Amino acid sequence: MFIDVATIKLKAGNGGDGAVAWRREKYEPAGGPAGGDGGAGGNIIFKTDEGIHTLMDFRYKREYKAPSGENGRNKKQFGKDGEDIILKVPVGTLIKDKNTEGVIADLKSKDQKFIIAKGGRGGKGNAKFTTSTRQAPAFAQAGSKGEEREIILELKLLADVGLVGFPNVGKSTLLSVVSAAKPKVANYHFTTLKPNLGVVNLGTEMSFVIADIPGLIEGASEGLGLGDEFLKHVERTKILIHVLDISGSEGRDPIDDFFKINSELKNYDERLSTKPQIIFANKMDIPGAEENLKLLKEKLGKDYKIFSGSAATTENLQELMKYTFNELQNYEEEYETYDEEYVAVEEKEEGIRVYKEFDKYIVDGPYIEKLMRSTNFEDVDSLRYFQENLRKNKVIEKLKELGIDEGDSVFILKYEFEFFE
Q: According to the annotation, is 208 in a ligand binding site?
């Protein structure tokens, strides 16, 4: 087992701004406000997919940004919502916050969805701000910003595919060629003292984990050599690639070897003998291989898919890996099912901070930033709405608690205001 890790940045879409617009219809020269609401920003959603086995795709693309909502339009037309981005991950993916390393979600169910970054809300158009005393509001509400976060994706990888076969048949060489793994490769038995794992990448959303399972000899199931320890790793694989030295270069009979290894698998655990097996007749570049391959196909060709080639020259390895990937897609695994369509991140309160720093009175926070962007400071109604919001959210009360006096300056974002009641 090893850990597959990827760090990515996410930015959900901003909400569209509400529109300031007026009815301009025939026979109604002084029509009322008609500004529509802005659309919501797109969310970024993770979804588990049992056809994906690694986090390989996230190593090539590390930033994801969802579309923003459109601004509102005239005639009270709403802006279009930004489309959600759905990122597919393997079942068993852990999502952590980059800054705190705390776990945000554990995606361990089939087809589970999780909203990791929520899009901003659309702002209200000026048509929504009419009251009995405010008939013609010349202001609208700005959309909220989409969430931004940097996260770590973590997956504990168990091998999807196990390479089995006698020592020195070419398993380590095969692993090193088809993946980025760097196992020790030498011409003697028991080179590998622990399972080597690598990721085979055949393209976008086409990768899987492969392991060289070492130490299989006669008697391995009874503890001879290191075999019984390594047989534990075979239990968790979905498909086995049985590597044979088809040349018989060490004086061994490849067909006999095939049955001996399968006997060890069955003796250790009956279920291992029922795992799907693909045979790879290796070392076809060595004289004598052709005759043995013919015998192998006569004996086992009806029951097993047989590929022939060479790990040393890479002959037919791409075809072998593509076939293996397709077989993995057909493999049915038991997963938890997830009933709810989504698990969402908790709603974050849009806060306001009121504080004193170096004798300066300061007001900031996401809500205030949105309020400032929504305010038309040249319009009396808009200014009144701005002041009402400050009072309603106890900004005035908090400033007075901090000791502010008439005429003192208050700094709200980049602007300076004079305090008076």
A: no
Residue 13 CA to residue 340 CA, distance in Å, equals 24
Top pLDDT among 16 and 167 is at 16
Tens of pLDDT, residue by residue over 318-342, are 999 999 999 999 887 655 555 445 5
Q: 343 has which bridge partners? A: 114
Pairing of strands 63-65, 93-97: unpaired
Which tops the pLDDT comparison, 30 or 135? 135
Domain interval for residue 166: 161-331
Instruction: Report pLDDT for 350.
Output: 58
User: How far apart, in whole angstroms, are the C-alpha atoms of residue 241 and residue 276?
Assistant: 9
Show which of 331, 363, 388 is a domain's final residue: 331
176 is in an annotated binding site: no
What distance in Å separates the CA atoms of residue 400 and residue 163, rounded to the nearest whole number? 73
Residue 58 lies in a domain: yes
12 with 117, same domain: the answer is: yes
Domains contained in the chain, number: 3
Question: 47 by DSSP, 3-state: which?
Answer: strand
- Residues 255, 246 contacting (CB under 8 angstroms): no
Strand stretches in 309-371, DSSP E: 336-337, 343-344, 353-357, 360-364
User: Is residue 166 annotated as involved in ligand binding?
Assistant: yes
Taking the model in full, what pTM does it have?
0.66
**Do 34 and 149 belong to one domain?**
yes
Does residue 68 have a known ligand-binding role? no
Q: Which of 11, 144, 6, 16 is CA-nearest to residue 68? A: 16
Residue 358 assigned ligand-binding role: no
Segment 136-159, tens digit of pLDDT: 898 899 999 999 999 999 987 778
- Kindly state the helix (H) or strand (E) to which residue 280 belongs, with its residue range: strand 277-282
Q: Is residue 313 part of a domain?
A: yes
Give residue for tokens 């909502």: 69
Q: What is the sign, positive or negative, of the torsion defined by CA atoms of 328, 329, 333, 335?
A: positive
420 annotated as belonging to a binding site for a ligand: no
Are residues 47 and 135 both part of a single domain? yes
